[in-house]
Amino acid sequence: MERCPRDTPRVTATLGELLMNVEDARNDQRGLEMASPLTSSASSFNSWTSAPASSITSSPFVLSFTDLTYSVKIKKKFPPFCGNSSSNDSALNTKILLNGISGEAHEGEMMAVLGASGSGKSTLIDALANRIAKDSLRGSITLNGEVLESRLQKVISAYVMQDDLLFPMLTVEETLMFSAEFRLPRSLSKKKKKARVQSLIDQLGLRSAARTMIGDEGHRGISGGERRRVSIGIDIIHDPIILFLDEPTSGLDSTSAYMVIKVLQRIAQSGSIVIMSIHQPSYRIMGLLDRLIFLSRGNTVFSGSPTHLPQFFFEFDHPIPENENKTEFALDLIRELENSPEGTKKLVEYHKEWRAKQQAAARYYNNGITLKEAITASISKGKLVSGAATTNSPSSFQTYANPFWIEMIVIGKRSILNSMRQPELIGMRIGAVMVTGIILATMFTKLDNSPKGVQERLGFFAFAMSTTFYTCAEAIPVFLQERYIFMRETAYNAYRRSSYVLSQSIISIPSLIFLAACFAATTFFAVGLAGGASGFLFFFLTILASFWAGSSFVTFLSGVVSNVMLGFTVVVAILAYFLLFSGFFISRDRIPLYWIWFHYLSLVKYPYEGVLQNEFEDTTKCFVRGIQIFDNSPLGQFPNAVKLSLLKSMSGVLGINVTAETCVTTGIDILKQQGVTEISKWNCLWITVAWGFFFRVLFYFTLLIGSKNKRR
């Protein structure tokens, strides 16, 4: 395989070198001028460049892949009729997505993977970026002749997804700064991190949009091309050796697409290997690419320099017309062959022969430089800043650039900043809680100590406790909106999953305290609940524990369910079951044995029983006196004189003097009637809190298992 010929081979400075000199350069009259994204950055790098003339091309980093093969099993849509099928019909269909793909990518160059939709472009990028499980992918991937281990690849490479996954309420500068705080080590001062971000903003051509919010459908922000460059910037903040991109020009106009590829060319020239998939590049973009791989249904039909395309298709007896776009001609021809009876089989076979000839004539070598030596040399020049936190030895790279507590602070700071710029969401949740509290307070105003008052109290507590859980359902979209941002950031060790879980848990507590205080203050005194100051404190703590358990439960479900509407449906259904089995509709003693397990799993059970005990634990308070025992029966309609006569008759039969003022039912009796005798109120509170921690742990394991972001 030959390289695209260049007039003068050169080795440009790494972005790390530019950073190391950025402060001096600003005071230097010669300076570094990197503000324009459309002009070549060669003049900015002259003081660090060298151009040894040699007929033999050498490259410190060479990424080689050989015979990459990947297939998936697909179930048939329509199973065969019984008794009329062979054993093969019942088996799964196997679809080959990659079939023996081989090639090389070199430092300082851009390789583009082209092909029609379904040709395997994104699959090949995923395979090279270690996003396909090792046991599913056959073939070998090496860097400088050594097998590239997964842990090392995460440190020295970056992957830019096709979709621009960014926080909409952050500015461009803030987005890149948070990325710097994640990916750059604590040993690098805040001043140097800011200098790195500023130099990267200039390199990406984002100076005019630096203080503009990213934006989304509801908030005006930066353009599509600028969003794509920001997406690239957050993944190259640590100056990776290898950069993978999936369709970086997708959805962009020709000018924006050219600007993006121009930025990628500068990144490659700073000492990186850039590998991307691209659908149909323009003529100008083709002039920037160094290597091409054309795919057709998982097979390679061309690989090499763009300058070799005319020769290749000429020898294949399909010469490219003189004034025709080479790429368009090649893609059109490939599509035409795919639709023919023989397909692209002849083109695939011819490419194998042609490539064998090219490899025989190639004169690439890496001067015997091992991978360890090459990485160490790159670190010494300022590349791989996160890997150089403590040592220059690649064998002792830090998996993460920062300790977990630094990650927690940065994650929390970013989440708070993003939330503060969406006050309508915070206001809606506070409004929902306050409106619910006011409705309950006005509906159950000053309940009396009568049999009807007891029933009304039970209804109030059941509705209040279940409402605290239902209002937590708004947490479902929070993680679902961040899911793919989280997967992108953790895929290449920007931070630990545990740091994310802990940070999100801690920053949720202040808002839960505020909501619980609002709800408790609105309802406790208006309803006339018992217990005074200590009773109010316990009621507040129970509401807080319910909010904590509810938000933890909903957060866990958001890690399991990937669709917002499905998530709301599941949450509402499960919370309804929790209320059904809480003991309000049917007491614990009356629940069938085969359902009693669900009673103990109900999140509503424990706060409900806790507040019941808080209300009815006073043995001196009476809730049913004398003639009130007839209130919930047909006898309740009779005059009091008749009721007193009945009490005298009952007293004679029972041998106990029962008057109109005799206490018949105390709070303890009500608790026994409701089956609330097993667990004390404080234990109910601790169990509710424990449920919250339990679901946070489950959420962590959900992220650990479900965010691998690898194909199987």
Topology:
Layout: H1 15-20, H2 22-27, E1 62-74, H3 87-90, E2 93-106, E3 110-114, H4 121-128, E4 137-143, E5 146-147, H5 150-156, E6 157-160, H6 172-183, H7 190-204, H8 224-235, E7 242-246, H9 254-269, E8 273-277, H10 283-286, E9 291-296, E10 299-304, H11 309-315, H12 326-338, H13 345-361, H14 371-380, H15 404-420, H16 423-443, H17 451-470, H18 476-491, H19 497-527, H20 532-560, H21 564-580, H22 596-601, H23 605-616, E11 622-625, H24 640-654, E12 663-666, H25 667-673, H26 681-706
Parallel strand pairs: 3-8, 3-9, 6-7, 7-8
Antiparallel strand pairs: 1-2, 1-4, 4-5, 9-10, 11-12
Membrane topology: Multi-pass membrane protein
Transmembrane segments: 426-447, 459-480, 501-530, 536-557, 564-586, 685-706
Pfam families: ABC2_membrane, ABC2_membrane_7, ABC_tran
Can you give the mean pLDDT? 81
Radius of gyration: 34 Å
Largest sheet: 6 strands, mixed
Indicate the proportion of strand residues: 5-15%
- Overall geometric form: elongated
Terminus-to-terminus distance = 31 Å
Structural class: alpha/beta
**How many strands appear in the DSSP assignment?**
12
What ranges have pLDDT less than 50 throughout 5 or more consecutive residues? 1-58, 85-91, 387-393
Helix content: 40-55%
What topology, given as strand order, has the largest sheet?
A: 6-7-8-3-9-10
Number of helices: 26
